[in-house]
Design a protein that fits this description.
single chain, Helix Hairpins, 3 domains, 6-stranded antiparallel beta sheet, 5-stranded mixed beta sheet, 51% helix
Amino acid sequence: MTARVAGRVRSLRARLVITVLLLFTLACVAIGVATSVSLQHFLDDRQDREVEMSVERFEKSATGALRPPPPGDGTPDGVPSGGFFLGPQGPGSIGAVVRDGAATRAELIDQGGVRADIPAADLALLATVAPQDRPQDLELSGGEYRVDAVVGSDGLTYVLGRPNDDVADVTGRLLLIEVVVLGGAVVVAGVAATVLVRRELRPLERVAGVAGQVGTLPLDRGEVHLAARVPDPDPRTEVGQVGTALNRMLDNVEGALAARQDSETRLRRFVADASHELRTPLAAIRGYAELSRREPDPVPAGTAHALVRISSQAERMSTLVEDLLLLARLDAGRPLERTPVDLTRLVLDAVGDAHVAGPGHRWVPDLPDEPVTVDGDAGRLAQVMANLLANARTHTPQGTTVTVGLTTEPGGAATLTVTDSGPGIAPETLPRVFERFARGAASRTRAGNDTPSTGLGLAIVSAVVAAHHGTVSVDSVPGRTTFTVRLPATP
């Protein structure tokens, strides 16, 4: 029963209170049962002794051994009559003399001490009582009796019984008292257990509160301060030991997070500085390559091809440096411009540029009738659109249909989707598509595009959307890949 209750009740406090109450109730029931049974045995034994002594007095009184009968006060059976028939017996006693299986005389002393005759049916029952080691129960018209029989010196059988009403009354009253007293004790114990368990579990609640506060902190990025600690844990108790261990763990975690943040800050600063410093030499390389290609003197074919490749790779490296610099600035929390941006116009411009860059694809805008406006940085949001369409163009074969959808949600939030009918993203690659320098699997082909991907396009999309307090997600199955960008409404 305790296991079933514990399965339904999740609270430790409730489970402890219920367990204590169950144990206390079982103890009370055991005490009550033991007391009732012991009293019942005691009363039964005492009544049996009284019945045995009473039947002996009856036999002695009837045979004259207790007190000689007056002269001439006998019966043809030799049994004394009159007031000495049952002898000195208490109220409720019943007795009979049995000869040859039939009761020759019987009397009943009622509760008022008056002797009275008993019904013939009771006489027949009394005649069936035979001497035994212990008295026995007999149901008569007046109720249940405890009866015993002895054979007198005259050869007659003397039967005497006493009612069981007194024993039943005492045990019934005891049972009522036990129910009231023990029931009240269970109620008082329940209230006391609730108060005491609640008080004793307060330190554990504080530990849980601290753990809950830490659990809500964003620990994956940025500078984190774990100021929450368990106040004054008592190491002498089990809960205090848990609190001490939690505080020690939080100290270690805070130190590790501080070291991680310091390392990330140094790395971010290095990337930003290196990207900034590389812009000038890359621009010079591109300029000198372009200048060499414009020389009027004839240039060998191999040299001309080398200059073209130098210019192409320098341009790609410049794009990579710009992307790294942008990510470093976003990681550093540089504020973006906040102006109303017409997303409908951005989608139309991006789709138009995609038509020019990827004429082998089919570009389909799916826009609402009314313009969709959000608050944000127009240049960065345009870069989000360009990167998503470039990703679809780069990683899908010719003839793929790319649909750009734009909708508004209740409350004014905007949802932008880019869906292509390409081969899809491999399941092992899908969870990390927004990571930096992530590379797609072979299923996302790069037909018609010889320029290697930097692996930063979708990372920039994720960073820019996060800077706008939005979210970006992807769902992909063979034949359908959808990137979903949700931006909050304009305040």
